[in-house]
Amino acid sequence: MSYEIAFNKAWQELNSAYEGKIEPVIFLGDEYSVDREKKTILSLSCNVPAKDFLAILILHYLVQKNKGLPEPTGEWLTFRELAGIEGYYPAFRKRAVEPVIRKYGNKPENIFSVLERLPSRKADFKDFSIIVDAFAGVPVLIKLIRADEEFGPDANILFDKSVIKIFCTEDIIVLAGIVAGQL
């Protein structure tokens, strides 16, 4: 799948929103530099260009940041509670939730190992949960539920309600998939 149209549109939006140099962006603890002239976003820790889907997410974040990011509300929404997502849930579950279940379903307490390598903290929810700060002002809640006699292990990824003022549904799916992949 080509991201060329979305990539070019995101650069246009960024160029309309910003004048001058753009400060590096922190995403999941990695710092990314943005070069408007070359249309590149470079991971400073690895010295490699960001993949297109991540570059688009970073560009969309920067546009919203320039407009003023909303403060996190502390109100958590499941993906199904986001507006206009009816057909997107299967993709969200496959890209984000199922990888978390595969990795941590049998030992949900291992999710806490993430605290050592990602900007994250334990959350005060039932079972095993952490909050990952994907970007500044964009927390993502990961909840794991231990299997019991009746049900197998499960997981969910929730978003602070403010995310709907920052990203569209497609971006939220990408964000969740990247976060899940980094866990």
Notes on the protein architecture:
This protein is an alpha+beta fold and 183 residues long. The chain has two domains: 4-67, no CATH class; 76-182, no CATH class. 33% of the residues lie in helices and 24% in strands. It is built from four helices and nine strands, in the order αββββαβαββββα. It has a five-stranded antiparallel sheet with strand order 5-9-8-7-6. Strands 1-2-3-4 form a four-stranded antiparallel sheet, covered by helices on one side. Helix 1 runs parallel beside helix 2 (52-67), helix 2 packs across helix 4 and helix 3 (89-104) runs parallel beside helix 4 (169-182). It starts with a helix and ends with a helix. The model has no long low-confidence stretch (mean pLDDT 90).
Characterize the overall form. Answer: globular
Helix content, binned percent:
25-40%
Our Rg estimate from Cα atoms comes to 17 Å
Q: Number of helical runs?
A: 4
Number of domains: 2
The H/E string reads HEEEEHEHEEEEH
Spatially, the strands of the biggest sheet line up as 5-9-8-7-6
Percentage of β-strand residues: 15-25%
Question: What structural category do the secondary elements indicate?
Answer: alpha+beta
Number of strands: 9
Average the pLDDT over all residues and give the rounded result.
Answer: 90
Low-confidence stretches: none
Q: What is the CA–CA distance across the termini? A: 25 Å
Largest sheet: 5 strands, antiparallel
